[in-house]
């Protein structure tokens, strides 16, 4: 499986992204740096869009890009240009959308504990929908909408009771989880009644998101079946057919060549088949179908460039040796290996090497043994300080989960397209890090 952005080429051992060499990018913008192939990012939105157009139809389906995967003002502008919606899950993400002048009526608001201020600002600007996650929140939305003299559209987030096959920390739809209203326990039915009784709320339908980095479509199938069955039950009780169904995100991508995610087309085709079949079975009209891909749009578009600072060979039990290659970033720009045991691939990006491959570990510069980017990889034995390493598929949950641990400035994001590079998020500097200090 290809793990590089679509406009990547390799010439004489040098990696080029959208026509610009990794070496030139590193020279001009420094390292570490996230390099985003703008056309790759846009092309994945277009793929989701055309798969939905062909199946559910353009008017009857929507995409809300999950901003948590990676969001900046420029990204919000690309989304607006591509004609898709945005899922925000905090006041901060909403602020980015507002700064980008993103159309409010294409924003969906998530979060299991939205503050009153977040709800107020969402209602004030006129977001398309708020996805309610608890009874407290239904009350809060009702109160605030009433104060503002508005009626707010909402969806209810449901927990269909699915054990999705992914890392425990990114599975979200089993029973013992903080998200959503359980269908099985009756909580979802109670929430539906409460939302219908609220006078400043328009309950448009239901949402579920079963987890992230999912390869196996079975979980999506069962989730859709259970939510549609629930919609039929609610129709029977309340005599209302809800117009909206949102099946969330979670579509997996390839991080290493052996990963085999399904194509966007096949995921959407399957979803269409299931939704159609279930609606027919329960005598429901096909609802407006939304999805919230984050990783599958942002992830494959981006490569992280690091510069090698030091290398060091250590002896392992059994007489083998391992080359520790330290780069100038690490867990502050990619927490995923430490947090989820995530695997990545790496390539020497600035030259070819004919040296024999040797067992290597790519590590960061942080003060932790667990600051490992790639635990075990064969790399040429002559990798040396000053070399550039490229790690693909870092566009989702890399920069967005980056931290200032060890007072490390967060890396920039550089958009490349047709041989041109431009900074869309600049590198932090010492002044940024000191900005919050209050000298009394
Ligand atoms: N919708 C909802 C309600 C979500 O909670 C999420 C992700 C998405 C959509 C987008 O999921 P995606 O298509 O990106 O898989 N930090 C973790 C992933 C956490 C995902 C949280 N929610 C990671 O790095 O793997």
UniProtKB/TrEMBL annotation:
Key word Metal-binding present: no
Entry annotated with the keyword S-adenosyl-L-methionine: no
Domain Orn/DAP/Arg decarboxylase 2 N-terminal residues, every copy: 40-298
Cofactor: pyridoxal 5'-phosphate
The Orn/DAP/Arg decarboxylase 2 C-terminal domain, residue ranges: 300-395
Listed InterPro entries: Ala_racemase/Decarboxylase_C (IPR009006), DAP_deCOOHase_LysA (IPR002986), De-COase2_C (IPR022643), De-COase2_N (IPR022644), De-COase2_pyr-phos_BS (IPR022653), Orn/DAP/Arg_de-COase (IPR000183), PLP-binding_barrel (IPR029066)
Keyword tags: Decarboxylase, Lyase, Pyridoxal phosphate
Pfam (any one): Orn_DAP_Arg_deC
Gene Ontology BP term (one): lysine biosynthetic process via diaminopimelate
GO function term, MF aspect, one: diaminopimelate decarboxylase activity
Entry protein name: Unannotated protein
């Amino acid at each position: 499986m290809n793990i590089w952005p679509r406009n990547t080429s390799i010439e004489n051992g040098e990696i080029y992204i959208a026509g610009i060499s990794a070496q030139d990018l590193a020279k001009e913008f420094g390292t570490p740096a996230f390099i985003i192939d703008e056309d790759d990012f846009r092309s994945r939105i277009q793929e989701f869009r055309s798969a939905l157009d062909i199946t559910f139809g353009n008017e009857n389906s929507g995409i809300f890009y999950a901003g948590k995967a990676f969001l900046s003002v420029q990204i919000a502008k690309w989304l607006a240009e591509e004609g898709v919606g945005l899922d925000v899950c905090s006041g901060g993400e909403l602020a980015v959308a507002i700064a980008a002048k993103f159309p409010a009526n294409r924003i969906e608001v998530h979060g299991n504990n939205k503050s009153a201020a977040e709800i107020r600002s969402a209602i004030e600007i006129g977001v398309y929908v708020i996805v309610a996650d608890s009874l407290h929140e239904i009350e809060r939305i009702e109160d605030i909408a009433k104060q503002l003299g508005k009626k707010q559209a909402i969806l209810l987030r449901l927990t269909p009771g699915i054990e999705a096959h992914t890392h425990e920390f990114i599975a979200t739809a089993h029973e013992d989880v903080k998200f959503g209203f359980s269908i099985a326990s009756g909580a979802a039915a109670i929430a539906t009644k409460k939302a219908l009784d609220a006078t400043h709320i328009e309950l448009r339908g239901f949402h579920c998101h079963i987890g992230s980095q999912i390869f196996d479509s079975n979980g999506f199938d069962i989730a859709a079946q259970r939510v549609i069955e629930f919609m039929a039950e609610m129709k029977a009780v309340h005599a209302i057919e809800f117009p909206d169904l949102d099946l969330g995100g979670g579509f997996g991508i390839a991080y290493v060549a052996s990963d085999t995610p399904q194509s966007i087309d096949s995921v959407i085709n399957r979803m269409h088949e299931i939704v159609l079949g279930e609606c027919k079975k329960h005598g429901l009209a096909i609802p407006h179908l939304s999805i919230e891909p984050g990783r599958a749009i942002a992830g494959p578009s981006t490569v992280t460039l690091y510069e090698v600072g030091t290398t060091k060979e250590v002896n392992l039990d059994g007489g083998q040796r391992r080359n520790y290659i330290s780069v100038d970033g690490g867990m502050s720009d990619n927490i995923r290996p430490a947090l989820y045991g995530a695997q990545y691939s790496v390539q020497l990006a600035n030259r070819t090497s004919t040296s024999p491959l040797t067992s290597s570990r790519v590590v960061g510069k942080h003060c932790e043994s667990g600051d490992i980017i790639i635990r075990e990889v064969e790399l040429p034995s002559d990798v040396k300080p000053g070399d550039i390493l490229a790690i693909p598929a870092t566009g989702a949950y890399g920069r967005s989960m980056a931290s200032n641990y060890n007072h490390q400035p967060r890396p920039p994001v550089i958009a490349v397209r047709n041989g041109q590079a431009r900074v869309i998020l600049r590198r932090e500097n010492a002044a940024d890090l000191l900005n919050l200090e209050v000298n009394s």
